[in-house]
Amino acid sequence: MSSLDAYIKEIEKELSSKRTSSKEEEVGTLLEVRDGVAIAAGLKDAFYGELVTFQNGVNGFIIDLTEDSVGIVVLGDYLSLEAGTFVKATGRVLSVPVADKFLGRVIDPLAYILDDGGKIKADKFYPIEKIAPGVVFRKSVSVPLQTGIKSIDAMIPIGRGQRELIIGDRSTGKTTIGIDTIINQKAEGVICIYCAIGQKNSKVASVIETLKKNNAMDYTIVVSAGASDSVALQYLAPYSATAIAEYFLDKGKDVLIIYDDLSKHAWAYRQISLVLRRPAGREAYPGDIFYLHSRLLERACRIDPKYGGGSITALPIIETLEGDISGYIPTNVISITDGQLFLETELFNSDIRPAINVGTSVSRVGGSAQTKAMKQVSSGLKLDLAQYRALAAFSQFESDLDEETKKSLNRGAKVTQILKQKKHEPYSLGEQVVVLWSATHGYLDKMAIHEVESFESRLRDALRSRKKDLLKKINKQKALESIDEKEIEKLVKSI
Amino acid sequence: MKIKPRLKEDLKKYLRQKQEEEEKKVTITAPYRLSSEEVKNIINLFPELKGKRVTQVLDSSLLAGLTIRHGSKVKDLSLKNHLMSLENRINELA
Predict the structure, then answer these.
(1) Model pTM?
(2) ipTM of the assembly?
(3) For residue A118, what is the nearest residue in chain B, using CA coordinates?
(4) Does A254 lie in the same domain as A189?
């Protein structure tokens, strides 16, 4: 009964507070209802992006302002609208409620709850569309974001505040890289947001299941606009997720957002533009398809500590067709991001997973986002692999080759093997450093290739059971001293 | 069917004329018929409504109060609106 009393007291307080309700409102009449879009007459003083309400309670926002009519994207059931319905402009920009309590929940782009937890009271309202922080507020990226995947952290390192594109064909492991990165942020204090755009509901459900199993949901928010949701929600989903990330950024936290995937986002925007009769450009995409993604990804940044600190790291995902990275949308997003991870089907099918093509993958931040320890062990790796790739064609003539070539081929094959990793098993910094140390110092050269996997798992078990202090020391100091190296040498020799 | 450009222009002009007439009109919707004295008092409260033609519409679902519509702007001072916004505020608290 006390909760009912408290509720009644709150209502009394709310009612006694004076709130002017006699303000002037813009009104219009609905003329046409198209697929997800409504055209209204009137609304003469409405502004772009304004939230509007239809007479039957459905919401929408203004996306088109023409001489005598207004185009409104309907955020709800557009089938329930009739011509002649009144539309009222609310005078507010489209915003999403944000609060700390959203961590661990699954929401849609308008922050309606999709899982079976309770309702959440909003702390603040953040606008979905926002201009990215200017040059003065930013600081260059220097803190690493550990993905837990050896090949990425060693050779294509990602820093906090960077945008790194994950690009590849279907079923090459793009979402898995994103999920593994989220799982590895458990002890790092990074808040993760997984934004699913146009994905199958079954896929989103299995992602949530994986995150729950690995105890990653405590610091993750899932923003989902599935394939059966309206095009308006799919269009808004990444902006909504970024608005939530900016709430945590303003508190000085580090945030990781994964946009899965932006190709479907471009399709949704193309549909809205074509229904609004905007002129179609290349591949029927509208003229501002570049701006669609550039304004989204520019909001991922690292803020200078004197303006509050914090960072947003974005990992957008793009799906290519037949490995064609010179398509329209892939080239657009490649030019926007600070690097890309190429995933290839051939590598995936040859059991090299994660199927990252180290030669063509780039991180424009590079070494500044690596710890000293990692730099010490990974400096020779990329060269070994490059030499291996150059000589790979000759591997069939193995008996006819000289010693140097044979050594390069052997080393390259062993390094490729050690960089393979099972999914949802991230490596901490210490484990990565020790494993790669053993590879670059030649302890794998004498083994047969099929023994490398068991060596690695024995080394890892030994590290976790006997050398916890060494791991803790490397994870904390992020540098390798010579005594550490001697300890590693002793351990590797004993396995 | 191709529309002659001259016809199109004439139609556009007619449409614009009609729209401007709409702008100048002021519509007061109330649950009962207002006397000319009451209408005059209301117009004096809002300076932007001076000198415009006033039409009255009856709508009993407003319960009490009235709405004033001029051009594309509406001032909703009815009891129905007040109760609806009250309902929204209470629901938000929940």
Answers:
(1) 0.89
(2) 0.73
(3) B94
(4) yes
